[in-house]
């Protein structure tokens, strides 16, 4: 029983760290896109492809999250908030990308 409890605690800690790292990745992506809004020379084809790959990777990670049975009610809200934030970041990126191509 003790070993099972330790496994659950370890999983909870790892899951929390994973969620924290996803949020940090969203912060970094948002920061890079905000910088690109201010500096036109950043918006190159290579930069756009790199950002699109990052958005795709984050999207795959965030949308594949499942809610463990032990999770609290706030867990669903955190996942929804990350998905909404990723959507907003993507819209921000698309606005920059559109400006760069015109």
Could you describe the 3D structure shown?
The chain has helices at residues 2-38, 45-63, 74-101. The chain has 102 residues and is an all-alpha fold.
Task: Write the H/E string, N to C.
Answer: HHH
Runs with pLDDT <50, length 5+?
none
Annotation, overall tally of beta strands: 0
Distance between the termini: 63 Å
Shape: elongated
Number of helix segments? Answer: 3
* Structural category: mainly alpha
Q: Let me know the average pLDDT.
A: 85
Roughly what percent helix?
over 70%
Radius of gyration: 17 Å
Q: Bin the strand percentage.
A: under 5%
Largest sheet: none
What characteristics describe this protein?
about 80% helix; mainly alpha; 3 helices; about 100 residues
Describe the structure concisely for a colleague.
The chain has helices at 2-38, 45-63, 74-101. It is mainly alpha-helical.
Outline the fold blueprint.
Layout: H1 2-38, H2 45-63, H3 74-101
């Amino acid at each position: 029983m003790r070993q099972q409890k330790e496994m659950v605690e370890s999983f909870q800690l790892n899951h929390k760290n994973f969620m924290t790292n996803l949020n940090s990745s969203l912060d970094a992506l948002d920061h890079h896109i905000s910088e690109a809004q201010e500096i036109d020379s950043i918006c190159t084809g290579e930069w756009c492809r790199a950002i699109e790959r990052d958005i795709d990777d984050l999207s795959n990670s965030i949308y594949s999250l499942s809610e463990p049975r032990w999770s609290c009610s706030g867990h669903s809200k955190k996942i929804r908030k990350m998905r909404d934030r990723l959507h907003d970041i993507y819209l921000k990126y698309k606005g920059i990308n559109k400006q760069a191509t015109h």
